[in-house]
Every structure is written in C-alpha cells, then in structure tokens.
C-alpha cells in the first residue's frame, strides 16, 4: 500500500510542478497584465494545490494533512478573488488590454442588458 501512496504522491508532485512551470512560462510569455495574471492565478493555484494534496497523501501526521488541505481550500478561495480585484484595480488605474484582444467588457457602460435595471425587467408582459 505504501508503494501506491508513493506513486500517487510522485505523480501529483510532478503534475503540480508542471502546472506551476506553465504558470511561470505564462507570466513571462503572455502579452499583457491581464493574461499574465490569469496564468498566474489559475495554473499557479492548480499547481500549488496538487502539490499540497501530494503532501497530504504522503504525510503520516494528521496535523500536517489538516494544514495541507486547509491551505488548498485557502488557495482555492483567495487566488481567484484576489486576481479579479487586482485586474479590476489595474483597469481602473489605466492599464489597457493588449491591442489584439477581442473584446473589452469594461469599456462600454452597457454591460447589462438595457431592459434590465436592478434585476427587474422593464418589459410589461
């Protein structure tokens, strides 16, 4: 049974390291702040989470397992929210999208359908 745990732990560490490497390459290679932030938050969170799950599987101490799984939950809860808020603040500060970006949702004030105000429809049915 220990061999199965060792193989599973090794696979999770290798896959997690690969995702972390992809995140690092994305930070270096992607064209603008927003795509770089996307690579760092998504692939970096997945890579870190997989490596922490590998630690939880490998560890024999329940305190280490609990801390590792709590860290995974913490990463999953905080990384997407912080990336979203950082991107919003960067946009407000004037960092614009890459020139070849397809669509800028925040550029137009009509992000919400014109017939919906405050969650209620203006149409009379």
Order of helices and strands: HHHEE
Low-confidence stretches: 111-117, 121-125
Structural class: mainly alpha
Largest sheet: 2 strands, antiparallel
The averaged pLDDT comes out at 84
Strand order of the largest sheet: 1-2
Shape: elongated
Question: How much of the sequence is in beta strands?
Answer: under 5%
Radius of gyration, in angstroms, nearest whole number: 21 Å
Strand segment tally? 2
Gap between N and C termini, in Å?
A: 65 Å
Q: Percent of residues in helical segments?
A: 55-70%
Distinct helical segment count: 3
Give descriptors for this structure:
125 residues, mainly alpha, two-stranded antiparallel ribbon, 3% strand, disordered C terminus
Describe the secondary structure blueprint for this structure.
Layout: H1 2-29, H2 33-58, H3 62-93, E1 116-117, E2 120-121
Antiparallel strand pairs: 1-2
Helix pairs in contact: 1-2, 2-3
Q: What does this molecule look like?
A:
By secondary structure, this protein is mostly helical. Helix content is 69%, strand content 3%. It is built from 3 helices and 2 strands; from the N terminus they run H-H-H-E-E. It has helices at 2-29, 33-58, 62-93; strands at 116-117, 120-121. A two-stranded antiparallel ribbon has the order 1-2. Strand 1 (116-117) and strand 2 form a beta hairpin. The longest helix has 32 residues, at 62-93. The radius of gyration is 21 Å and the shape is elongated. The model is unreliable at 111-117 and 121-125 (pLDDT under 50).
């Amino acid at each position: 049974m220990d061999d199965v745990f060792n193989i599973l732990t090794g696979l999770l560490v290798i896959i997690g390291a690969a995702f972390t490497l992809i995140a690092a390459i994305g930070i270096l290679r992607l064209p603008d702040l927003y795509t770089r932030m996307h690579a760092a938050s998504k692939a970096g969170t997945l890579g870190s989470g997989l490596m922490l799950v590998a630690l939880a599987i490998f560890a024999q101490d329940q305190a280490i397992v609990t801390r590792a799984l709590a860290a995974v939950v913490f990463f999953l809860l905080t990384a997407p929210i912080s990336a979203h808020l950082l991107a919003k603040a960067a946009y407000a500060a004037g960092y614009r999208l890459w020139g070849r970006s397809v669509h800028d949702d925040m550029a137009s004030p009509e992000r919400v359908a014109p017939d919906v105000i405050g969650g209620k429809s203006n149409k009379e049915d």
